[in-house]
Structures are given as C-alpha cells and as structure tokens.
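SAMPLE LOG
Freezer: B-3
Tube label: C17
Construct: single chain, 223 aa
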Amino acid sequence: MKRINTQIAALALAAALAGCGPASEPPPAFNGTDITGAGWARQLELKDHTGRHVTLADFKGKVVLLFFGYTNCPGPCPTALAEMAQVVKQVGPDRVQGLFVTVDPERDTLEKLASYVPAFHPSFLGLRGSKEEVEKVTKDFKIYYQAQKDDKGGDAGHGVEHGSYMVDHSTGIYVFDRNSRARLYFSANGRSVSAMVHDVNLLMGLRPAAGVLACVRKRRRRS
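STRUCTURE (predicted):
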C-alpha cells in the first residue's frame, strides 16, 4: 500500500509540473531592454589587462556584464562599474563576469586598466585594442564615443594641460547569457542594481524554478 501511495504522489507531482510548464506561464519579464536575437553586439576580440586575447566565447557558462568607458571618466564609468560590482557580489563571481572596454586606448594602457578596473571587483577585466580594433567593436555594439580634443590634443574649451580631455560616450550596460548571446541592454536612466540582479537571475535560470514551485502550490490549493 505504501508503495502504491508513493507512486500516486509521484504521478500527481508530475501532473502538477506539467501544468506549470512553458505553455501555462508567460515568458520571463525582464527589467532591461530585451535585445535577444539582435544582429549586432556579437564581435568582441580584444586584449584583457593581463595581456590575454579574449572573446565573448571565453566566458561561456557565465552571464556577462559589459560596459564601454575610459579610466579618466569622472562619473558614468565608476557609477556603472560600482553597480556591476554589486550585481557580482549578490549573484556570485562564479556566475557573473564584468568586462570594461576602453574607448580611449590612446591613454588607457593595459597597466592603467589593470590598476583601475579590478579596484571595483577583483574578477573584473579591462579590455583594450588598437584604435582600429576599438572602432570595429564599438561599431558592432552601436556605441557612440567622441574625444573632446582641441587642435593641440587638449580638452577643448577647458584650459587644461595637453593630453587631458573628456570622452563623450554611450553609458549603457550590455548583458550576455551563459551562451555568450546578447540578451539585454540597461541604459543609465532608471537603471538599478536590484533590476539587474533580477534579470541576471532569470538568465541563470534561478527565478523560473521558484515560479514553477509557486504554480504547483497554487494548483494544489485549488484541488
């Protein structure tokens, strides 16, 4: 009798799970802009701050957070990196990888990136390439950037020393799933750590499982 009861319980659970499958649940709701299937944001071949050549495929198995900026950036860059660091701390460096691509390779050497980027989180990697390589990557990722130089190479209109200038650039964060596919884009406006953590968990497959359990409990209460 005990064996029969166990089999009946197993069949009931299977039926409940079947009723909570993809057909009965809407697709996950992301906070970020869903760019799944985009024909861009695919080509990334640069050198990290340790001197290693990397591509997105090197981070398969992890969700990747990717930001474009430069080390002399006064506000948007440290803000984005700090937000990304909080996401990594909450989800785990074994599940999330933070990447920072410089749009100012003229000043951002590998040594400078090695000093700047890991200061936000030790697992973060700074990436750079030649001027041509950076132009190729930013074009594929639809990233805008423009150095504000005067004719002498200084900061136009700010009266600072030669070689010191600002770079206007896009300030959104790209999110890639564990198969290195571009999935989400978080613009700077209204972006929050909690929203990114929520979406990263969805991409990791952590939240849908909880949704299935809730559905099972709901169906049981109805029966």
